[in-house]
Write a structure and sequence with these properties.
Family: Belongs to the acireductone dioxygenase (ARD) family.
Bound molecules: 4-(methylsulfanyl)-2-oxobutanoic acid, fe (ii) ion
Largest sheet: 8 strands, antiparallel
Helix content: 25-40%
CATH class: Mainly Beta
Protein name: Acireductone dioxygenase
Order of helices and strands: EHEHEHEEEEEEEH
Oligomer: single chain
InterPro entries: ARD (IPR004313), ARD_euk (IPR027496), RmlC-like_jellyroll (IPR014710), RmlC_Cupin_sf (IPR011051)
Organism: Protea cynaroides
GO cellular component, one term: cytoplasm
Shape: globular
CATH topology: Jelly Rolls
CATH architecture: Sandwich
Number of helices: 4
């Protein structure tokens, strides 16, 4: 099955709940691509010996790799980590995560600053572009095992919002606007 993503209902309910709108408003993969979010569906049982994963890592230069287990029993400073992950932030580099077990939600802002909730499950690999506002939470199953990838020496530093002057933010916003202009331009040409 393809990835599931939807516009969030923002209310004070538990962050681990789905937060669907009423009626539900799903978001397509191509809409996520417009925001610069990349997605692959891989075989999580075979990550040690997966040609597809090897190809992605080689073509995108993801030479660094480690694992992150998140659950109340196993994770040190669990509550604090989860609180930080759910604080809206950007990074200077891509955030690359491959879900090997369990599940969770990545929330990203769309071009109009609305939250899109992306449900990551076993086999889902996602890349968030540098400079996109995002956050992460476990869902009500309270467990995820993620592979983290990076180009070179990893830097996990979050820059909490607002970050409009951060170079990564500026270039992200610029790219996004260029993409939107191109899209409108080609729609206008087609209409002629
Ligand atoms: C648990 S991985 C995702 C959380 C996050 O946004 C981060 O690590 O920067
Ligand atoms: Fe992040």
């Amino acid at each position: 099955m393809a990835i599931e993503a939807w516009y969030m209902e923002e209310n004070s309910e538990d962050q681990r709940l789905p937060h669907h709108r009423n009626p539900q408003e799903f978001v397509s993969l191509s809409k996520l691509e417009e925001l610069g979010v990349l997605y692959w569906r891989l075989n999580p049982k075979n990550y040690d010996n997966d040609e597809e994963l090897r190809n992605i890592r080689e073509s995108r230069g993801y030479n660094y790799m480690d694992f992150l287990d998140l659950c109340p029993e196993k994770t040190e400073n669990y509550e604090e980590k989860l609180k930080n992950f759910y604080t809206e932030h950007i990074h200077a580099n891509e955030e690359i995560r491959y879900c090997l077990e369990g599940s969770g939600y990545f929330d990203v802002r769309d071009k109009d600053d609305r939250w899109i909730r992306i449900w990551i499950k076993e086999g889902d690999m996602i890349v968030l572009p540098a400079g996109i506002y995002h956050r992460f939470t476990l869902d009500t199953d309270n467990y995820v095992k993620l592979m983290r990838l990076f180009v070179g020496e990893p830097v996990w530093t979050p820059f909490n919002r607002p970050q409009e002057e951060h170079p990564a933010r500026k270039s992200y916003v610029m790219n996004l606007m260029e993409n939107l202009m191109e899209e409108r331009f080609s729609v206008a040409l087609e209409a002629h």
